[in-house]
Design goal:
The chain is built from ten helices and no strands. The chain has about 180 residues and is an all-alpha fold. The N and C termini lie far apart (about 55 Å).
């Protein structure tokens, strides 16, 4: 029952975020941390719609907005980790489509052998293969709470790094303008 409730919350949040994005109510200049959270939730959760969540964190890290890069990275990481549950659910429901992906067997084996370490590394590194890792974890019945922990840990490192790089990169570039 807890698992069904968790799924309903994540899918509801993705749906609400998608609604705000489509209706134009989701701008990081107006919403700050909430936009970083929601755009990453949508980007990680809606596999069909390409929403680059890292761009929201990077854009919101502009010095002129005055947002804290560590908090911004944390908000983006929470949204991204929760959004990745959709891939986990897809794996939990069946892996037939993912099994056709060329790297699926390798990633599935890595998640099977290394578990949390594999999820952490794949979440921390910018790569398009994490959805496959989420599907593999769901298909293997990897515990949801552990999945979320390792994915969040990897994403928080990634997004805080992106926020600081963009903050100081934007500041550095504007000095030459």
């Amino acid at each position: 029952m807890v698992r069904v409730g968790s799924y309903a919350i994540v899918l509801g949040a993705v749906g609400a975020g998608l609604f705000f994005w489509i209706t134009g109510r989701l701008e990081f200049k107006d919403q700050g941390y909430a936009s970083a959270f929601l755009l990453n939730l949508i980007g990680s959760g809606a596999l069909i719609i390409p929403v680059p969540g890292f761009a929201a964190v990077c854009g919101a890290a502009a010095p002129s907005l005055g947002l804290n890069p560590a908090l911004l990275g944390g908000a983006g990481a929470i949204g991204a980790a929760l959004g990745e549950v959709t891939g986990y659910l897809a794996g939990f429901g069946g892996q037939a489509l993912a099994a056709r992906f060329p790297f699926y067997a390798r990633i599935h084996g890595w998640v099977l052998r290394r578990g949390g370490v594999a999820l952490f590394i794949l979440a921390a590194l910018p790569n398009p293969l994490f959805d496959v890792a989420g599907i593999a974890a769901g298909g293997l019945g990897y515990p949801l709470h552990k999945f979320l922990f390792y994915v969040f840990a990897g994403k928080v490192i990634r997004f805080i790094g992106i926020a600081y790089a963009c903050r100081y990169g934007i500041d550095w570039i504007t000095r030459f303008s």
